[in-house]
Design goal:
The chain is of the alpha/beta class. It contains eleven helices and 32 strands. The strands form seven sheets. An eight-stranded parallel beta sheet has the order 18-20-22-24-26-28-30-32, with no helix packed on it. Strands 14-15-16-17-19-21-23 form a seven-stranded mixed beta sheet, with no helix packed on it. Strand 7 and strand 8 form a beta hairpin. The longest helix is centred in the first third of the chain and has 10 residues.
C-alpha cells in the first residue's frame, strides 16, 4: 500500500482505500492529488465507503471525483428566461416570500405531521424563501401516495426553494413530504437544472445570488454540503441545522466544531462535561428532557463497544442516576431515566435512533413523544397511565411494550409500527384515531377493559388471531377494515355499538 493510500485509510477507512486504488489509478499516479480532493470535499468519515456502496453510488462517486480534473467546465446552462417563466414551462407557479405571513400561506399544502420547519418562523432572517406550486396542485391528494418517494408527483407538487443568506448562497429544495422521505431537503439533488435547464443561472441573475453549484449532480443521502465546500455526514436535521458526528453542527451551512475534550454533541443537545450541564442547541422544544437533567453533580463517560456510556449523577441525593448510551456517531441509542414522572409535548420528538427507553416512575406523556423515532425496540414504563397524540408515530421496530397501568392513548398511537405481534394492556380504556394503522402482523390484542376505539384502528392488519375487549362499547369508522379477519380471528366483545364494520 502506498503512502497516499495509507493516508486515505487513516482518514476514511481501509475499505475506502481499497476502493480508491481500484477506481482512481490514474489520479493516484500524481502523488497527493486524490487525498487533496477527498479532504477538500469530505470531512473525516470512516463510514463514507459503506454509504457509497449501500446507496449504489460507486460510479456516480467516481464521476464526481474525476469532474474536478476537468478544465474550463461550464457549470451553468445560460438562459435569458426568468425563474417564473422556466418553472411555468414545467407546470409550476413561483412565489417569493417577503414576510412571515407570505410563508405561512403555504402551510395549507402540508399534511399534519409533515409541515416544514420553515413554518415555525424566523426563516427569512437566514434565508431567501420561495415556493413553487404545481398548477394542478388541488388534484394531487396525499392519500393517493401510501408509499412516498421523494421525487413522486405529490412530494414535488409543492417545493420550497431556499438560499442561505451571506457571501455565498447555499441552495436547499425542500419536499412536500418533509421528513417522511430520505433527504427531503435535497429534492432534485438540490439542482434547479433538474427541474428545468437553466433555472440555476436564472435564479442567480434575477435575485443577485452567488449560488454554490454542484456540477456533477452528485448526492449522497445523509450528507450535507457546507459553506466550506465539504460534505459532512449528519445524524439529523431540523430547521436547516444539521447535527453531525465528531461534535460538528452545520447551522445554515456554517460549520461549527466543539472541542471533544469538553463537549459531546448528542442529537440536538450539547453536553458540557466541564460545566456539568446539558442544553439544546437552539430551542426549548425538548425542555422536559433537559429539565430532567438539571443540577448535575458529576458526569461519567466511559467507552463501550457501541460507542459511549454516560452516567449522570445529581446534587439532590433523592434523584437516581440517569444513564445514556450513544453510538460511535453520537446518536442516542439508550435512555434510562428513573426520575421522570410527567413529560409534556415533543419529548425527544426529533430523535430517530433511540433503541431502548426505560422510565419506571413515568405516569403521563404529552403529544409527539419520540414521534420521528424509527429504531426503538423496547419501551418500559410500568407506571404510565396516559399518553397524548402521535406516540412513537413513525416507529416501525417496537417489539416490547410494557405499560401495565396505561388507561388512555391519543390518536396515531404506534401509527407506523410493523413489528409488534402481541399487545396487552389490561387497564386500557380509550384509544384514539389511527392507532396501529400500519401494523400488518399483530396477532393478539388483549385489552379486557377497553371501552372506546377511534377510527381506522389496525387498518392494514391481516394477521390478527385473538381480539379480547369484553367491555368495548364504541368503535370508529373502518374498525379493523378487512372483513376476512372476522372469520379467522377469535373475538371477545359483546356490547359494541359499531360505526364501522359488523361482527
Amino acid at each position: 500500500m502506498t503512502e497516499e493510500l495509507k493516508q486515505i485509510k487513516k482518514i476514511y477507512g481501509e475499505k475506502m482505500s481499497h476502493f480508491c486504488r481500484e477506481m482512481f489509478p490514474t489520479i493516484l499516479e500524481q502523488e497527493g492529488l486524490l487525498t487533496t480532493i477527498l479532504k477538500e470535499k469530505y470531512q473525516e468519515d470512516k463510514d463514507l465507503y459503506e454509504n457509497i456502496v449501500i446507496q449504489g453510488k460507486q460510479e456516480d462517486f467516481k464521476n464526481y471525483i474525476y469532474s474536478f480534473l476537468k478544465a474550463d467546465d461550464d457549470t451553468y446552462i445560460v438562459t435569458s428566461k426568468k425563474p417564473a417563466e422556466l418553472l411555468s414551462e414545467v407546470g409550476y407557479h413561483l412565489y417569493e416570500c417577503k414576510s412571515e405571513e407570505d410563508i405561512q400561506y403555504f402551510k395549507k399544502y402540508y399534511a399534519k405531521g409533515e409541515e416544514l420547519c420553515t413554518f415555525r418562523g424566523g426563516r427569512l432572517r437566514k434565508s431567501h424563501v420561495f415556493f413553487a406550486v404545481k398548477k394542478d396542485v388541488d388534484n394531487i391528494k396525499r392519500e393517493d401516495y401510501s408509499n412516498p418517494k421523494r421525487q413522486d408527483l405529490y412530494g414535488t407538487s409543492v417545493i420550497s426553494i431556499q438560499f442561505s443568506k451571506g457571501d455565498t448562497n447555499r441552495l436547499s429544495i425542500k419536499n412536500r413530504y418533509n421528513h417522511v422521505v430520505n433527504n427531503p431537503d435535497a429534492t432534485f439533488s438540490n439542482n434547479l437544472d433538474l427541474i428545468n435547464k437553466g433555472l440555476t443561472k436564472s435564479f442567480a441573475e434575477e435575485y443577485q445570488l452567488n449560488v454554490i453549484f454542484n456540477a456533477s449532480n452528485f448526492e449522497l443521502e445523509g450528507y450535507v454540503l457546507a459553506n466550506d465546500g465539504k460534505y459532512y455526514k449528519y445524524n439529523s436535521e431540523r430547521n436547516n441545522i444539521y447535527y453531525c458526528p465528531n461534535n460538528i453542527i452545520i447551522d445554515n451551512f456554517e460549520v461549527k466544531k466543539y472541542d471533544p475534550s469538553r463537549y459531546l454533541v448528542i442529537d440536538c443537545f450539547i453536553l458540557d462535561i466541564k460545566d456539568k450541564k446539558i442544553t439544546p442547541y437552539v430551542d426549548s422544544e425538548d425542555e422536559d428532557f433537559v429539565g430532567s437533567l438539571e443540577d448535575i453533580e458529576k458526569i461519567e463517560v466511559t467507552k463501550i463497544e457501541q460507542g459511549k456510556k454516560i452516567n449522570i449523577y445529581f446534587k439532590n441525593n433523592n434523584k437516581e442516576i440517569v444513564t445514556i448510551e450513544i453510538d460511535k456517531s453520537n446518536n442516542m441509542i439508550f435512555l434510562n431515566d428513573p426520575n421522570l414522572i410527567t413529560i409534556g409535548d415533543r419529548f425527544l420528538s426529533h430523535n430517530q435512533t433511540l433503541r431502548e427507553f426505560t422510565a419506571p416512575k413515568l405516569t403521563v406523556i404529552g403529544n409527539r413523544f419520540l414521534s420521528q423515532n424509527k429504531d426503538l425496540t423496547k419501551f418500559i414504563a410500568p407506571n404510565l397511565k396516559n399518553v397524548g397524540d402521535y406516540f412513537l408515530a413513525f416507529n416501525r421496530d417496537l417489539e416490547e411494550f410494557k405499560a401495565d397501568e396505561l388507561t388512555i392513548v391519543g390518536s396515531h398511537f404506534l401509527f407506523r409500527n410493523e413489528a409488534l405481534t402481541r399487545f396487552e394492556c389490561l387497564k386500557l380504556t380509550n384509544i384514539g384515531d389511527f392507532c396501529m394503522f400500519h401494523n400488518k402482523i399483530l396477532k393478539e390484542f388483549i385489552t379486557p377493559n377497553l371501552i372506546n376505539i377511534g377510527s381506522c384502528f389496525l387498518y392494514n392488519n391481516l394477521e390478527l388471531m385473538k381480539f379480547i375487549a369484553n367491555k368495548l362499547a364504541t368503535t370508529g369508522k373502518k374498525f379493523l377494515f378487512h372483513k376476512q379477519l372476522l372469520d379467522s380471528a377469535t373475538w371477545e366483545f359483546d356490547n359494541v355499538k359499531k360505526t364501522g364494520i359488523s361482527k
